[in-house]
Specification:
single chain; mainly alpha; 3 helices; rod-shaped
Length: 79
């Protein structure tokens, strides 16, 4: 188990509900380092872009199965 580096005092961060819960669970530091995303709009834009890419990849996989099935039927002479 490693020890956490000492954090500078931050009274606002110390009093937040999130950090109170963390201390009750045994967090070694007085508050959770890090915090809120400074630019959430950029993160949401990236998530939308990657979500669209994921949907396109899923559609390509499903459609390629149909195309391969049709090609296999045409090549085998079944019909």
């Amino acid at each position: 188990m490693t020890t956490a580096a000492p954090l500078p005092p931050d009274p606002e961060a110390y009093d937040s509900e999130r950090n109170e819960h963390a201390r009750r669970r045994g967090l070694a530091a007085p508050y959770i380092a890090g915090g809120r995303d400074p630019d959430p709009a950029a993160g949401r834009a990236e998530e939308r872009r990657l979500g669209r890419l994921l949907l396109l990849m899923i559609a390509a996989l499903v459609l390629s199965g149909f195309v391969l099935g049709i090609v296999a039927n045409l090549l085998s002479g079944a019909g």
